[in-house]
Amino acid sequence: MIAAPEIPTDFNLLQESETHFSSDTDFEDIEGKNQKQGKGKSVVDDWIESYKHDRDIALLDLINFFIQCSGCKGVVTAEMFRHMQNSEIIRKMTEEFDEDSGDYPLTMAGPQWKKFKSSFCEFIGVLVRQCQYSIIYDEYMMDTVISLLTGLSDSQVRAFRHTSTLAAMKLMTALVNVALNLSINMDNTQRQYEAERNKMIGKRANERLELLLQKRKELQENQDEIENMMNAIFKGVFVHRYRDAIAEIRAICIEEIGIWMKMYSDAFLNDSYLKYVGWTMHDKQGEVRLKCLTALQGLYYNKELNSKLELFTSRFKDRIVSMTLDKEYDVAVQAIKLLTLVLQSSEEVLTAEDCENVYHLVYSAHRPVAVAAGEFLYKKLFSRRDPEDDGMMKRRGRQGPNANLVKTLVFFFLESELHEHAAYLVDSMWDCATELLKDWECMNSLLLEEPLSGEEALTDRQESALIEIMLCTIRQAAECHPPVGRGTGKRVLTAKEKKTQLDDRTKITELFAVALPQLLAKYSVDAEKVTNLLQLPQYFDLEIYTTGRLEKHLDALLRQIRNIVEKHTDTDVLEACSKTYHALCNEEFTIFNRVDISRSQLIDELADKFNRLLEDFLQEGEEPDEDDAYQVLSTLKRITAFHNAHDLSKWDLFACNYKLLKTGIENGDMPEQIVIHALQCTHYVILWQLAKITESSSTKEDLLRLKKQMRVFCQICQHYLTNVNTTVKEQAFTILCDILMIFSHQIMSGGRDMLEPLVYTPDSSLQSELLSFILDHVFIEQDDDNNSAYYNDYGDIIKETMSKTRQIDKIQCAKTLILSLQQLFNEMIQENGYNFDRSSSTFSGIKELARRFALTFGLDQLKTREAIAMLHKDGIEFAFKEPNPQGESHPPLNLAFLDILSEFSSKLLRQDKRTVYVYLEKFMTFQMSLRREDVWLPLMSYRNSLLAGGDDDTMSVISGISSRGSTVRSKKSKPSTGKRKVVEGMQLALPEESSSSDSMWLSREQTLHTPVMMQTPQLTSTIMREPKRLRPEDSFMSVYPMQTEHHQPPLDYNTQVTWMLAQRQQEEARQQQERAAMSYVKLRTNLQHAIRRGTSLMEDDEEPIVEDVMMSSEGRIEDLNEGMDFDTMDIDLPPSKNRRERTELKPDFFDPASIMDESVLGVSMF
User: Which part of the chain is the SCD domain (predicted)?
Assistant: First the structure.
């Protein structure tokens, strides 16, 4: 860990001077609300006193403060401060940066380091605030600090660059606040001056006028100074770091510029600054896009700023709308919230198409996205009221103000054409439209009452939608949790939420206990409406039937349910009736006896009717007609539906169902629906008997009777597995699987050893028939290619199975994958012979499967390292397993398998590619290495895949491309010790070795490249550059001169191979000597050179931070910048005049034209 002993949460600085920022007390509580102006202010006050006494010593303290806050152990001495340029100091500190891991204070985890960051930022703000009246204008302190931070922000050391950028941006924010105060003071002074000057000459105080003029002049000069400081920071830091390769640094810049525009809108809220936010909305990293949106929210929230945002809105509105589909959910949520603010500022800005893009997100599975979209929908369609609604505020029901809004909700639901997702629509709007969604009286009135004169009645489709929405609102209010897929589980309700829940259930019960029988009577013939209405009693407070004296309404409800059972044969309706009886038959309430009697009467009638009909239906010698079959089926459906939720054991339904099923087996002419429901009903009989035996003490006779019934029923199901009707076979198969699962050995778990007689193990014939069913009806041949034949139906199951097996044993899972590819390869050889066409669809299909297998290993190469290495080992052995009978001049018979194996090469770490390459060479002869014919192409292709990407895994704190979370170094990593990990014939470097920059560079030296001899290009870096005073007009490229690389012509292939073989034995010894001779500083220097040469701090020019980050495909970005003023500008505070430049500030050696070129976003700049 970098400098952990020196930098805990406090700022314990080690300087030569006597003045220090003390450790535990000064900054530990600097962010505390009650002590921000206390201890934090006292630290700054002490430093100011020190500065007034000796400003060089005080500034030295401040410089070392920033250096140490970056995690650097180096100390700037007084001698260095007096005689060295900033660039030399930074170079010196870079050399002394003791890099042990990729972490530094700003990236370290834990509450103390979060406290460090907030204290660090607060300190800078307090420093400027305490110095704003004198010291910051002395043309020394701020010049030194800004020059230091500007230089550090250009460092290749990420810790320096990150820390100094944060400091510079917070410094800029503090200066913006000072500039705003100066502007206010200037306005006040100007008004006072005008008021005094407009007085009559006799009453005018000339001395006061002179004082006001002098004060205004001083304020103007101070404002000019502040402008220059802000320009230096903005042009020297911001315009370069907002495009930094590190996402955290880009995010800091965008967050702060949003603060500047909001804080001082007169100076910063214009297109010249908004463009940076607009461009960065295309950033690759979600956290940066998120900062853009939150910055814009702060601006759009203030309606007074809307006029200044019109051009920006017109140019970047489409991008904001597209970000509602961002792959990062947090970004999508903030994009929707931003559009809601845009909608509130001006409804004309968003087109109907823009709004529709947000509307459909109310059905998103991610609840925060759906809730944000619901609020947008509510603001757009439901928050406005017509003036005539004002007189309806006190009315209720159909004449109330919510009636039209409820209709609007129904219309929206129907137009969205997602009729199975009303629960998700309700949940999306629950937080913002609670009053509307809980107006059940209005909904009930719209369903039961006749329309008013001139009012259009609801259509049948609209009534169905309203009933479904009403049910969903009642469920949401009663259960207080989102629908399935929207939440992580039931959360603990607060006391307030529990009270609201009880009040809502009481309101629901009082209203619908009376209204539900009327609704059921009105819609009794409509299966869809009745099914939804019958679910309402599940959410009733049943005690209210007694306390509210509503028994007569309960009787009316029971009568309606009975009538519905008699009218309908639809399974959904019957199961809804069964569930309603189950909800009402609660022994805790006094209504239980009343409901139980009604239920028993209904089941008695159904059982008697079924037995009577069955006797006539199975009468020998008579052919049953269709009417008899329908009567049996409809009665059996009703009984089965009730048996699902109720114990009907006392009616002994097993015997009659067994008789029915046995007759069907003997005669073979039983209607399929009767067989299906008889099987299901018998299954329920078995399960209810098992439940009774398990829950209460039972006799041995009960166990034996259940065992006998279960075995007999399994035999019947086994017979029906061979039925000619597919639906019957599927029902029998499903029930058999359930029974085998329930009555397996696990039935005895939990101390239930007495159930051992019920354990059932299928015999070989049943197993065979079950397997035959799977082969005949599940894994059937399809017309698709071999690899994707079952992907659509079983892809998710296969992927989950692979994931579980990988969690159990990664290496065995990898061996299984390579074995499956080898089997497919062998099958192809058997069909086509060894001279098959490698461009054939069969071989291409195997390669495609290998590519998909490779994708399942994910992005974390360290976790799958050994498994991937083992996969390559097995693949190489398989490829060379069968030598060619014609001799070594011909390829091994399975050599083409290397073409398939190359699909996994990208999953190897760089150092493991080297190891696999060496292992491959063990199987290669000298003649093989010289072969160039087409039949040897798989070998050449595989070798090249192992030699490619030598620098893919370079990670270092001194890097422009590493980022927190991507580093793989262990915090306790040590320099390479030469240990190797053996993986069945191959040696892999331990993960800890590859973690440090040392081992990475050593591994890079070990990497075997194709031996084309080249001169090493000479590299330069700003860090190692000799001090040079640059003119402001010097361009960015002139600061980083690159010498031309010189290449010798490549050698022919035979010479390369000869050279490789000659050098192989000497390579390890030579590299060991080089490592021993190479110092740590030299390693760091080379790393800096390579990164400066190979990867700029900025992203590459070709769309550097832009990628497709949407959940759905989007077209190319259009020209977003047309008509906007995008010239690089100086910060121009509104009242500023007579600016003067300061030569003491470090010159801005970045060419303004290089801030961003046309290739950055693929759009034109002007």
Answer: 238-323
